Amino acid sequence: MTERKTLRTKTYVLLAMMVVFGPSGDVLLSRGMKQLGGLHVWSFDGILHFFMRAFTSGSVWLGIAALLLFFISYLLVLSWADFSYVSPASALGYVLVALMGYFFLGEHVPPVRWLGIALICVGVFLVGGTHPDTRQSG
Q1: Which CA distances in Å does 56 have to 5, 43, 50, 67, 98?
Q2: Assign residue 37 a region: left if phi > 0, alpha if psi is -120 to 50, beta otherwise?
Q3: Residue 5 CA: distances (Å) to CA of 2, 29, 76, 125, 128
Q4: Which of 6, 33, 100, 132 is in the most buried spot, having the most CB atoms within 10 Å?
C-alpha cells in the first residue's frame, strides 16, 4: 500500500512541476518574442538576424529553461504513469496559461474562454481521482 501512495505522491509532484513549468516557459517565450517584434524580412539574412536577436533575449532563454524542466518532468512521469492519466491531469496548466497571459502579458481573456477552462478543471478533477497506473489499480 505504501508503494501505491509513493507512486501517487511522485506523480502529483511531477504533474505540479509540469503545470508550473510548461505555462511559465510558454509565457516567458511569448514575452521575449513580443519584445523582439515580428519577422519582417523573409530573406536568409533577415531570418538569421531575427534568430540571433531571439537567442540573446533573457526571457527567451528563461522560457527555454522552464520548458526543458517541463519536458524532463513529463518524461519522468510517463515512465510509470498512464498517458491517458498524465495528459488530462496536466491540462490544469491551461488555467495557469490564462491567468499568466492576463496578468503578465496584459491579454484579454473573454468569458467563453474562462468557461472552457472551468470545464477543463472539472475534467482534471475527474481524472485526478483515478490511479495513475491502471496496471496497478486492480
Answers
A1: 44, 20, 10, 17, 27
A2: left
A3: 5, 36, 17, 18, 14
A4: 132
Q: What is the pLDDT of residues 58-108, one digit of tens each?
A: 999 999 999 999 999 999 999 988 888 888 888 888 889 999 999 999 999
This prediction has a pTM of 0.80
Phi, psi dihedral angles at 131 (to 5 degrees): -75, 140
Predicted confidence (pLDDT) per residue in 37-64, tens digit: 888 888 888 888 888 888 899 999 999 9
- For the chain, give me the number of helices (H) and strands (E)? 6, 0
8 A C-beta contact, residue 88 and residue 124: yes
Instruction: Count CB atoms within 10 A of the CB of residue 115.
Output: 10
